[in-house]
Every structure is written in C-alpha cells, then in structure tokens.
Predict the structure.
Amino acid sequence: MKKLKKILLVFISFIALISLSLYGYLLTTKPKYEGELSIKNISKETTVYFDDYGVPHIYAANQKDAMTTLGYVHAQDRLWQMELIRRIAPGKLSEIFGTRALKNDKFFIGLGIDENSEKAIAELDKNGKPYQMAMAYLDGVNQYLENGKTPIEFTILGIKKEKFTLKDVYNTFGYMAFSFAMAQKTDPLLTDIRNQYGEAYLKDLGIDYSLNPTRLKISKEQTQKYVEISKSITTLLENSPVPPFIGSNSWVLSPKKTKTGKVLFCNDPHIEYSQPGTWYEAHISCPEYEMYGYYIAGTPFPLLGHNRDYAYGLTMFENDDADLFQEENNPKDENQYKTVTGFEKYKIRTKTIKVKDSTSVILKIKETQHGPIINDLIADFKTQKPVSFSWIYTQQPNKILDAVYGLSRANDIAEFQKGVSYIVAPGLNIMYGDAKNNIAWFTSGKLYKLEKGVNANFILNGTNGIDDKKQFLDYSNNPSAINPSWNYVYSSNNMPEAIEGYNYPGYYLPEDRARRITNLLDNKSDWSKEDVSKMLTDNTSPVSIEIVKTMLSVIDSEKLSEQEKTAVNILKNWKGTNGLADVAPTIYNKWIYLYLKNTYQDEMGEISFKQFLKTHIMKQSIAFQTKNENSPWWDNIATKNKKETRKDILKLALQQAVLSLNNQLGNEVNSWTWNRVHKVEYKHPLGSVALFKPFFNVGIFDISGTNEVINNTMFDYSDAAEYTIKAGPSTRRIVDFSDVENSWSILPTGQSGNPMSKHYNDQAEMYATGKFRKMKLNKEEIIKTSTKLVFKTK
C-alpha cells in the first residue's frame, strides 16, 4: 500500500511539474505591452500606449515609423491569424492541417487569386505612398516574426516561420472579396429548381426582385444537378479557419437628425464569429496623419476607421459580381471547349499543393474565356459538362491597395469617393460622415448589364455568345446618396432603387432590418449617442409579427391541444422582441423551420433543402410565400393521393414545433425562454479538439437577437436543441462628431489573438450584454489608462 502511495505521489508530482512547465512556457508567449524594444528602420523613438482593452495608440514622428511599429504590434497579437488568412487564397492550408484542408486548397488555388495578386503587384507604382507604407508595415510584421515570441499554435502544428510579402496582403483582400460573393451559393440551387419544376415554383422565391419593397434610395437538353456546387462552396466557407463576411448594418445621421447638431455615425459589419475575431483596432498619431482604424489580419490599411475629421465603414452591397457558365467540350478533343467562333484550347495552370504528412497533390486547372473549370475543384461535383466560374475580381484591374489606402487617407469627401471607385469587387456599401456635417453612402463594384432576357440567377450558357455579353457601367452610375433631403443614409444589405432603369441583379436580404431602421430614423429627429447605442442592439422584428399573424390566420385553435393553444396565445401577444426572457421567438423559429421543411424539402430533397436554408432567397421568401395560399410548394409530392394546402402544412408544422419543444425543454410552455436555445461560442480553429477547447474557445454565452433584426445574431434554421449562432456584429461602432474623443465601440471577444493575453476575451461579457467602451483619441486620457511600450531605433 505504501509503495502504491509513493508511485501515486511520484505520478502526481510529475503531472504537476509538467503542468507548471507548460504554464511557464505559455507565459513566455504573452504579448509585450510595456517596457522597451529596439527595432530597425524607424527614424526616431516611437511610443505605443496600450489602453485598458489592449488597443495600441502609436505616437510616431512620421507615417513610415508608425506603419513599421503597427506591423510589429499587430503581429504580436495576431500572428497566428495572419498566418492562417494568408494561406487560404494560394491553397496552403494543407501544409499545416493535412488532408482535411485539401478541399479548401483545391478550390481556392483554382480561383486564380494568387495569380491576380502577382499581376496587381507588378503593375503597382513602387514610388507611391500605398506601396511604401504597406512595405513599412510588412517590415514591422517580419521583424516581430524574426525576433518576437512564437505563438503556441505554431508550436502545436509545427509551422515554419516565413516572411510576409505584399502578395500575402493582396491574397488576404482576395479571400475577403470572395467571401462576400453569393452567386456560387445560390445560382446552382435555383437552376436545379427551374430545371426540375419550372418557372411557377420560382415566383415565391422572388428572383424577379418583387419581394424587395424597402429599397435604398438613390440621390442620383438533359439537365444535370448543380446543387453540389452550392453545397460544397458554402461548406468550404463555413469551415474556413478565417470567417467570411455576410451582411451588416450602418446608418449616418445628418445634424438635422441629432440632438447635438453634429453627425452621428453607426456601423456593425456582420461576419461569421471566430476566435480571434476579425478586427484588430489600432490608433496611429503622427504630425501629418491620425486614424483610429480596424484592420484585417496581415493588412496595412484599415477597412473601418475614424479621426477627428471623418468616419467610414462598410456593409455588403450584395450585388452579383460572379457568374457560373455551362461550358461544352469538343467531343473529338477534351482539351478544347466550344465558343461562338468555334472550339478553343483550354488554358492549363499546373499547381502543386503540399500536404502535411502526405504526398503532394498536382492540380491541373482548366480555364476558359470565362474563368476556371470548377468540376475538379469541388468535391462530389462530377457531371457530364464542365462549369466555369467567372468573377469580376480576377478579371478587372486590381487596385485594392490604392483603394483601401485612399479610404484611410482622404482629405475630403471627393478624395474619399475616389478611393471607393478603385474597388471593382467586392460590392460594398461604404458609409461616410464628417465633422463638416456631410453624410454619404457610396457603393463600390464594377457594375454591368447583361443582354435582355439573360437571368444571372441561373447557370448561364457559355457557348452562345449572348449570356456572357457584358456592358460595363461607368462608376458614376453606381448607387449613392450625398447629403440627401431625408437627412440620413443607411444600409442593411437591402436592394437599391433601379440602376440605369433596371433592377440590378444581386442577392439582397429581405426588408426586415431596412424597415426597422427606416421606421426608427424617420420618427425621431433628436438622436443622441445613447439612443443609437440602443438601436444597434435592437431586437425587434416588425416583419415577424406580420408573418405570425398570417400563419395564425389559418390555424383553427379549437382543434389544438392545451399546450398548443398556450403556444398560439403567446404568439398572438408577441411584440416581435427577441430578448433572453422572451418565449415567443423560441416557438416562432421552431415553427418557421418546420414550415420550411414541410413546404420545400419534398420537392428539393434533403441536400438541396439544407442548402436553401443557407441562402438569402429563403429569408426573403417567407413573408410572401406564407401569404400565398395558391403556392405550388404547399402540396407534398410524396403523398400521391392527397393535395396538401397551406392550412394543412402550417398546422402540421405548428404541432410538430410544440412537440419538439416539449421534448427539448419540458412541458411548461412559459419556460421555453429564448436564452435556453440561443447561445454563442467563439471558436478557435484548434478549439475543435476537445483537449484544446477550454484553452482556445471563448464562451458559451446566452445572447439576445435573432436572424434579420438589427442585432442580427445569425443561425441556420434547424430542429436542434440549441441554435448554433454562426455570425453577428463583428464590432459595433458609434462615432459622435460632437464629442469624437468619446466615441464608442465593442468587439465580440477581445483585441488579442493570444490566449495568454488578458485582452483575449475581456470584452466578451460586455458584448453579450450590449455594452460599449471608448475608442480613445485624447492623448492625456490615453496615457493615464495605458501601459507604455517604447520602440527605440536599432
């Protein structure tokens, strides 16, 4: 027994020693927030104050010194994230994750982003400020890479450090641009529905844009199945270690709408949640330049920002900038494809994908005049005919570095708009407000018209010489509004008014948020910073109330069980709120899912239906389709001797919803509160491993909001016990030009991507409860609340 105790004591001591050693090692990886460092290539001593939330405030003698220092401090907090994001576009994730990342690498390497980046850099003015400042930033990143601490993720995965280059910056912007596009997620599904069931089934999905009433006002042969394209690309983006952009809200109020008589600016870009989060905040101050910016990992210029003169932010335009083309091989030569002038040879690109602990993969990518053939780039998409992917981003001159530099260095509204005009893709709503009382909304993107009768919502014909004709529009035709008479500009990814006399093709979101935003803004003219902060976390849906009223109108309450009657009464009295203590949203969302499933899955099949649930067309169809008692979708084609009606489907879905919630949450309907099913966890790429999950992931938190309210916490409809919230506001920002030094912001988790930093998750609780913190600009206040890290010349 004594021997056993000794063995046990030795074992416990060994484990304790290992744990202490591991903890001691982890402590050595912490970012350095105070003291002194010596770095090369700065002309004078540069001081960085890290405030109480870890935001660096960089005070430098000039912009070059500031950018070099920014690169260094950005890397010490986000080097792991930088490493991940730079690997996506050139297909290098398999080098660190092995074969499970091979699908991602095949697809992204096939898009040609890497080649487009090379071309853009070759054409870049090397004497221009955008190039010089970007190179200074990369110098700072690489100095940290060489001399700084190694992130724990590098050690776990055995990642070899390699210098960052300008191509990494361009590739990062390229991946970001692709994640905005919706065509590849939607067009294949709509094509399958049309081919199988005809045009009648498409009316309820609103592809003629008739379901977009609340629009942004401008102030100026044998069929083949395509759903695997939608499914595979959506899955790739959802499983990407770097989150894609999805939606967003923004509004800017003119002085006539505010209590102070100065501009109020608000923005909350919607992006898939991850840990670390998307944005890194940094404040630069030097004699000729100041900006408080939000940076994507590994990029030198902020996509969101403000200073004492102006503020800017973005939402997704949701315009169509990508098309899929059905191509046709030469039956006598598989190396040729058909064009309107005859057969042409495929252009072949050969790429090698290195795979960790496995054999390298040689990929031969065929390209037509439209773009790469994606059949071999997508898992499970094996068809008779090739399909090509045409994307404006890789086809037009790439000036993204000049564009983002221009946004963050504008001297006036005209210079700012010039920066917007350089962006050919992605399509963005770029919001602007300034200290001179100007407000504006601009859209980016190279817009074009197709031939009359060509519908960009479907797979197009690549051989007829008609479907691929594009009439490019001058940038002056892009939707915009500058100081409009209604005294505000806003965007919530909804459709703009007609452009050049026609409804511009896109994948716009329904009117829910747009209606709520405009209703609130129209009815008040004395907005304060506190008022708009409440609006940014608003959880009310006026559209959901109308949908419930429509659905309940066909339900005969007399034939329901007592539990079902209780659920109906809760829905009848619902005000459309989605707070933690509300019961109605729990019932409503379950009912919506089961209504959708019983209505659409019999025609679509399980795979297509799951993909349908991830599209914007699903969201915009609900309000209209539930009103249409003659919709062909109501009939369940699996029941041969019966034709189901709207009443049949909605009643069945309600009963199933109540039964499901009873099994899930118990028989007391009033206890089915929203907080029991609506939760969020911020997941690190290594957090999927059970051993690492507690260390890397942040959460779980009960969180208010829902799909398509202003506080847009997004999830896919399902019958799961809890909704997996996959996306939401990546930051909430309020810039008040009456008191710009006390503007507000919040991040979902924290500023640092290093798990040992106290700023890894120090904003998570605040974010979950709708609170804000300062974006500091006052140097005296910054010094009082910060640690100090001095960068000396080397």
Q: What stands out?
A: The chain has 24 helices and 31 strands. The chain has a mean pLDDT of 90. The first strand starts at residue 35 and ends at 39. The CA atoms of residues 146 and 705 lie 44 Å apart.
